[in-house]
Sequence to fold (756 residues):
Amino acid sequence: MEQIGPYRILAKLGEGGMGVVYTAEDQRLHRTVALKVIRESGDHPTAKQRFLREARAAASIDHPNICRIYDIGECDGDPFMVMELLEGEALASRLLRGPLPLDQAIDAVLKILSALSALHGRALLHRDLKPSNIFLSTHGVKLLDFGLAKAVAGRQDETPHDETLTDAELTQPGMIVGTPRYASPEQIAGKPLDGRSDLYSAGAVLFEMLSGKPAFSGSSAIEIFHSILYESPAALTGSAAISAADRIVQRALAKNPEERYADAGAMAAELQTVLRLEHSGSRVETRAIKRLIILPFKPLRPDAETDFLAFSLPDAIGAALAGLSSLVVRSTLAAARYAAGAPDLKEIAKEADVDVVLTGTLLRAGSQLRLATQLVEAPTGTLLWSRSLQVELRDIFQLQDTLVGSVVESLALPLTAGERKLLTHDAPANASAYELYLRANELGRQRKFSEAAQLLQQCVQVDPHYAPAWARLGRSLWLTQKYSSSSREAQNEADQAMRRALELNPDLPIAHNLYAMIEVEQGRADHAMVRLLRRARGSNNDPELFAALSHACRYCGLLAESVAAHERARRFDPHIPTTVTQTYLLSTDYQRALETSDDGFGYTRAICLAMLNRTAEAVELLRKHQSQFTWRLGKLHLVSFRACLEGNREESTAAADELLGGPFSDPEGWYGLARIMARLSETDRALKALRRCIHEGFFCLPAFRADPWFDTIREHPDFQAILESARQRSSAARSLFEAEGGNRLLGLPSSESPEA
Fold:
């Protein structure tokens, strides 16, 4: 082929699934152009229609980041399209050489989002955003190939909905609408699309630009679709700007379109903040973070002597692995759901979002314990290794040590010098101490905190240098006093145990994460926040750490920061429990709070219902929990709240008076009591509870300002003084947060004022 109309063919540039692209000379205007010719349009009636649609869609938008269309015509019945000739390379070619520097990747995606914004503004969707359709030209980034562009559903000019992904299309090469690896979940399912589908694809492209690897892998379209529908890509780790970029990527890749950015402009605005965080052009550091779940070990027959190992030994193994930067271990609570029956690896991979599963069976024979374990990939079931270990009961720590080493070796986890030290740092001095430790952990799982504390006290007497035991002891003592005595002496004992754990091992993750909860309730939320932020600089894939940080930030009045920390925790463990429900509640986002709440204690969920004017449901819920609750102080809160909603002032205030005169010490609990009393216009009681709230360390300024139940006392001089105290402490906490780089760590913009 030498000539097509007035265009003289100079060379072949390339070809794709439906057309061939040539370099050609426009002999009329004496300029070099790119000429795209459809192939075999006569044999494929829809191909010509699609080709023409591409030309019309591209020609309808005049934008610097969209390849310009000069002309359209036909030659021997086959349509052709004339475009500007670009110098440079496709992003797909560039990615063959590895990832892009952070600033270059974000700059390219900003240009793509600008082009998408123009498309979406004309109610058009691209539907096939991928590296081969993004061109890095000498004059900037250009978006190509509008063959799948289509009007948003509901437009009068919309073409028939004939391009959903049918079973037949899945079996025919080239027939899938949109490239599978970059298609959104709703695109795969053939559901109606809007601009957020293109933003999903943009997020997938950005991930690949930063990491050099596709966000979703698989050897076939079906495997890729499964990954898109049910899995999450690995975390991007490195600098603070990279963490911020990771947060944006994950939001763009949300399975539910409602959880993504509303439009391209909103996504671009957040990416701009990343550029302000870091302009160094540093490359992203991508660690192959594996996600592991250790299922409860199954006793092959009931045995009172060893049954405690079923949960406590996997928990201890998980805790030992928790500090590794290249591994995320799912929580014991998440694993407990799969205790019964044979493990369904596909179900576990989908629900727990993991790559690897460790399973095992236990059998005691006399003084010997046999543990048979398997490490398998999920969801494929590929066996990585199988181990059968038999030890004397007095040597059960050997099981933990061997299995931890086997996991690290088989997954080829890269370890820093500090991580190698961490794995060998906390061996118990003898078997007796380790058995006491494991038995206590099982009691803690059953919420028998007092009994667990007694065993842990024996454990640290036998081995006073075993740091994990001191950390667990601190938690057990704290929860024992919280649900019974609430004495200052007991609180101090818990605090001292935690301090001892950190003295013995300053890098022990479990000690840092558990201690944060104690510090927060002791009125030192700002101290806990600072310590956790410092930990996060070197351990930024620990979900427990970010869950604790979310809790501390809320007490300090940093609600957006609390939500961001929660989202970071869920990024690494989708099922990790956090207290974000209370954060939404204090933000007056009552519907979101209700959606994230569980029945649990019942108190927080009842508040959500009450604030949404579902009072009867709230009362019913409180009555149910009140009848079942054994913790006296907690029960008084339920009674006071329920009586308030029922209009029973006398019963509500009587319960409140018992709390106000007793040993209750939860600062956030004082806040809850204050709002109940304010609702009843019990001004003195409300102010007394608020003073305790501030004094004991809960100074959530946004909640004090926005909670409508405080309207009855809002103009009172003492309330204004309390508000000022909260403002000062919250402002100081925000300054600490920013000084420690909290915004950078969580990918948040810096506030313009201390009260923002």
